[in-house]
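Journal club side-thread
Mid-discussion, someone asked how the predicted structure for our own chain would compare to the paper's figures. Pasting it here so we can look after the session.
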Amino acid sequence: MTLGCSTPPADEGDGSGTTGSTGSATGPTEGGSEPTGDGSSEGGSTTATTAGSDSSGGGLPPPVLDECIDDGSAGGHVYSCGAFDFDVTIPESCLDEPCGLIVDVHGFTMSGAMQEANTHLRQLGAARGYIVIQPNANPAPPASSWNPGVDDDAVVDFMLRVADAFHVDRDRLHLTGFSQGGYMSWRVVCEHADLLASVAPAAACGDGVIADCDFGPGNQPSEPVDILFMHGTQDVLVPYPCAPVRRDAVVAAYGLGPEQVVAEGDGYRWTRHEGDDGTVMEFITHEYSAANTVVLGGHCFPGSDDPGDQPGQLMSYACVEPTELFWGEAVLDFFDAHPRG
């Protein structure tokens, strides 16, 4: 298994290209097209790379447009659907052949653009054949917050709209999220296990908002879904002790085998529990901290280069310590390795 490197792919300013990562991880420089728009929600504009709003590259039927998805061209878009804006990046290659789909959900006070600044999944996903959705909670940052339940339904509904519109490979529907977005990931995997191939929650455990998904009897997914879970030992907002409890609950519910070490480095440890049917629970712990240690502590993204300069942003969510572990690339490697079925 490859690890994300400590230098995320750099933006080239106009969003028209991707600078490849260095280090041991698989970089985004080969294998797929890259988005031409920045896909951010600021300004409410839509950037496209093709002239026709319903055209297709020829290998697939044209995108199926509706009242929410009103432009089927490749590039970065902001789609308004119901109460929410969704930043969506559609690689050119996904108009020619079925792609996977990743929903990447931000945390409290954040936005889709802030999430992207930490995961770089728009660029990384485009290179590996994924459409990426980054929802925006209401109201605008820094007051943005997800409402458990009703907002989950809106995000899942939009995920399925995009899957239908762009003829997505239904064996490659994935969900990841940080903090509040991580809690949403847990809830959705318990409510919609039949839809998802794998999930990757981060910095989310031990809270009443996931009490109905504690992996006890009656409170677990209807079928096993592969899980990658990350939590920082120095986390101030979501203290670490709940993380191994949640890992152990998943291992028990799935009937998984003993711990195996996947990777270990300076400040992090990555382990796996695997079942006889191949289902896995992988768990990453890290000892890193954000620059604001008082408010966040280890509530941060390893390997991130988040500058903390998005509209309404209160602070950077990057872990400051150098590390070979880059969360965005670790998530993508996991999703690549764990399609449905």
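Post-session note: Confidence is low (pLDDT under 50) at residues 11-57.
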